[in-house]
Amino acid sequence: MGKMRGEGKKKKKAVIFTLDAIFAVLIATSMIVASFLFFSKTDLSTYNQQDLYRASLDTLTVLEKDFKLKNAVETSSTAAIESYINSLPSQICANITIFDKESNMISSAVKIDCQDSTERIVASRVFIANNDVYYAKIKSWYQ
Amino acid sequence: MQKLNGRNKAQFFSMDFVVAILLFITILISSIFIWDYSQEKIFLNEKRNNLNLLARNTASSLVETPGNPSNWSYIDTNDFNETNVLSLGLTRGNSLNNYDQINKVSASGFNFNNLLILDQEKIQRLYELDQTKHDKIKKILGLLGPNYEFEISIKKWNGYSYTTNYTIGLTPINASNIVRLDRFALLNNTWTDVMIKVWEK
User: Is residue B62 a contact partner of residue B196, using CB atoms and an 8 Å limit?
Assistant: First the structure.
């Protein structure tokens, strides 16, 4: 009787994974993926609002110097203003409202096929009509 | 059973250690890639921001001012350089024709200027000068980068759309960066779109 040492002893092999290692791999992978996602983002908003504000001011200035705002008050017709704002680039929407010096709304013109937006730029310009002072306010946004 | 000279040698090897080494190498290599990528992205963003600023300054100078001197369009071609022309502008300068109007408007408390009122003669002159003095124009506009170029398009409204009347400068070909900016103005009482492109070869 002599069982050889080890005879009958079952061979046992095991692979040990600790939770620490699993968490470490998951966290490291998440950080690397997040870093690449962050750096691959393209940011276009830096000058967009500035460009829109500049376009708004240009619009009011052109309409004032072209006497379209004055005519809109004196003839009670906003057709010319509508024509101009409809000529703006397709990505720009605008709504122009004319007020008297007591802030009573006189008339309004909106670009066609424009959906309203909460992210709007506002600009104003004063002009003379009927020997009185009025101001035009433009609200513009990107479509 | 025998002890081997009383020495006990053993090797310690755990799966945790292997995983840790692999993870460390992965993170190290990823960090190098991310660093390189972010440096390049920052560099490209800075270049683009620079082009954006140049485009805006150029546009402002052209459509908001008459230039300095305001009669730069009368300067002889041979004398057209950055010493004699400090800035370029396409708006009408003040003249005796509107001197009285300026005084009356100023007395009323308003500021009279030709902001966004373009001068046809100045546009024509700039177009002609660009044929032979393109580099001088670039310098005066402030486009001093080695590979910077510009294109100015003057488009007039014909009732249905804007059509190009003048193209001044070079059309972008194989440009690595282009910035486009549109300003709206009046030319001969016609709605005008002044499109400015600043680009890098």
Answer: yes
The reply to whether ipTM tops 0.90 is: no
Token pair, residue A64, equals 């004032």
- Shortest distance, CA A112 to any CA of chain B (angstroms): 15
Task: Please enumerate in sequence order all residues whose Cβ is within 8 A of that of B168, keeping only pairs 6 or more positions apart, or say none.
Answer: B123, B126, B127, B130, B151, B152, B153, B154
- Kindly give, in sequence order, each residue whose CB lies less than 8 Å from that of residue B132, ignoring residues fewer than 6 positions away: B77
Q: What is the pLDDT of residues B22-69, one digit of tens each?
A: 888 888 888 888 888 888 888 888 888 999 999 999 999 999 999 999
pTM over 0.90? The answer is no
Tell me if A137 sits within 8 A of A122, measured CB to CB.
yes
Lowest-pLDDT range, A4-13, B22-31, B169-178?
A: A4-13
Q: How far is B150 from chain A (nearest CA, A)?
A: 19
Nearest CA in chain A to B31: A32
Chain B residues whose CB is inside 8 A of the A20 CB are 16
